[in-house]
Structures are given as structure tokens and as C-alpha cells.
Amino acid sequence: MTTSQQDKLVIEYIGKAHTPYPEKFAIPRQPGIVTAAQGYIELFDQQHATQMLNGIEQYSHLWVLFGFHATQQQGWKPMVRPPRLGGNKKMGVLATRSTFRPNPIGMSVVKFLKTDNINNKTVIRIQGMDLLDQTPIIDIKPYIPYSDAVTDATSDFAQSVGTAIQVSFNDQAQSQLSLFDNHYPDLSLLIKQVLSQDPRPAYKTNQVDNKLYGMALFDLNIQWQMTNMNHAVVINITKST
Ligand code: SAM
């Protein structure tokens, strides 16, 4: 890209997100899919945070604009391979929601729960996000249904979430779950919703192997196996060391 000084916009991050997703693997591809994911946004300007959020309680959902900070070093290409197409076909970057964009900016509609105070900081509690933990926030705006909800919108490429796979817990995972359940919001539902999207790489999704897969949620390691193409069994839930 060629830019002159006047073609640039100066942006400073206004906060950061705290989410259940400490690594990219297994984060849902869009918001609102894993509704059990709860987290919060911490505003950096604590002196003005209460004023900045005045009136926000009247909205049920918010737009969150954020930086794809974890992938920005990798740059961008005009054509990308969306995982939804199995990673084989290319599409123009602007025709996708790829993280590898000319300006690495993401946008997600999330459920607004409430403003709160955590460790003496004013925060915004949110739900259903698709953001990596510690994601820098560029802006927050109210979601306005009359204009933002386009009921006759079409999308041939990404028509629906995709088929959910079945998820269950074996006896060991079930008892580990009962140890952790009180300390992590909606943990069993969160694990189920994340795994039901089959986070394995696209080329694996029609395969059954004996492989032990692992993902991180909060500071927990979750391991599972596929018993058939449509069924994941969680077998181990432990604290990360
Ligand atoms: N809803 C947003 C959008 O459309 O702009 C994000 C869509 S993008 C396809 C979602 C993926 O971005 C997630 O599955 C995760 O892998 C990745 N992601 C989330 N937060 C990120 C971050 N801070 N840096 C890099 N990648 C991130």
C-alpha cells in the first residue's frame, strides 16, 4: 500500500479485552456463536471511564472494534484462503472476515451485560465475543437494531454457523468439571459450545483419528478425542502449569 501522511489515521487503543481465550486455536470464527463466553473490557482512561460509559446500560449489544494484534506482524495479502472453504480456495481479502487485512481491524457485535468494578477499575462486562484474551480495543459503539440488523441480507459464502458436532464428557472429565465449575462462568456450556464448532483444522474435520486434541480456556487445558466424525469426548480438564 502506498500512503502519504494525509492518508493516515492516528488511532490509539482505548482499552483491552479479557476473554476466556488465551490462544487463537478454538476461538469461534464470529461472535454470538459461543454465547457462554463471558469476559470484560477494561478502559485505559479510568479517570473518564464512568463518563465515557454514561448511558450505555440502555443497549443490549455493542459493536467492539479491535486490533488483530496477534497476527498483524504477518502482514496481509490481497487474496486469502478462508477456513470455511476448507483452506483450498482463495478469495479477495475484502470479501472475507480474515484477520490478515490491509488495516488489521476486527469488528464484533457482543452482548452487553453491565458495567462493573474489577480491581478498582471500571469495566464493561460482555458475552459471546470472538476475541483473543488481551486484545486491544479501538472503539465501542452501541448496536442499533433498526439500522444494523439487515433482515434481508444475503451471503452465499458464509450462510450459517455450520453443523454442530456432539460433545460429551467422560467420567474423569465430569468429576474434574465439578471441581472447576464454580470458579469459571458457565464452564461446561463454554467447553461444549466451543467444541461443537469442531475447532480442528479444516482438513481434519472429516477425519476420525485417535489423536488427543487440546485447547486452552482461561487457565485450563482441555483435552478431547473424536469418537466418530460428529462426536467429541472431553477426557481431561486440568489447570495450566
Ligand atoms: N468478528 C471479527 C470480524 O469479523 O472482524 C473477527 C472475525 S475473525 C475471522 C475471528 C478470529 O480472529 C478468531 O477465531 C481468532 O482466531 C482471531 N482473533 C481474535 N482476536 C484476535 C487478535 N487479537 N489477534 C489476532 N487474531 C485474533
Description:
It is a single chain. This protein is mainly beta. The chain has two domains: 108 residues, Elongation Factor Tu (Ef-tu), domain 3 (Beta Barrel); 74 residues, YaeB-like fold (2-Layer Sandwich). 12% of the residues lie in helices and 32% in strands. It has four helices and twelve strands. The strands form three sheets. Strands 1-2-7-6-3-8 form a six-stranded antiparallel beta barrel. The radius of gyration is 19 Å and the shape is globular. The termini are far apart. The relative contact order is 0.20. The mean pLDDT is 93. It binds S-adenosylmethionine. S-adenosylmethionine (SAM) binds next to strand 6.
The DSSP helix count reads: 4
Structural class: mainly beta
CATH architecture title of the largest domain? Beta Barrel
As a percent range, the share of helical residues equals: 10-25%
Give the domain tally. 2
Strand order of the largest sheet: 1-2-7-6-3-8
**What is the CATH class of the largest domain?**
Mainly Beta
Question: Which spans of ≥5 residues are poorly predicted at pLDDT below 50?
Answer: none
Radius of gyration: 19 Å
> What series of H and E elements makes up the topology?
EEHEEEEEEHEHHEEE
The name CATH uses for the topology of the largest domain is: Elongation Factor Tu (Ef-tu), domain 3
Query: In whole angstroms, how far apart are the ends?
Result: 43 Å
Strand content: 25-35%
Q: What profile does the largest beta sheet have? A: 6 strands, antiparallel, barrel
Based on CA inertia axes, which overall geometry fits? Answer: globular
The CATH superfamily name of the largest domain is YaeB-like
Total number of beta strands: 12
Hetero groups bound?
S-adenosylmethionine
InterPro entries: TrmO-like_N, TrmO_C, YaeB-like, YaeB-like_sf, YaeB_N_sf
Pfam families: TrmO_C (PF18389), TrmO_N (PF01980)
Domain TsaA-like: 11-152
Keywords: S-adenosyl-L-methionine
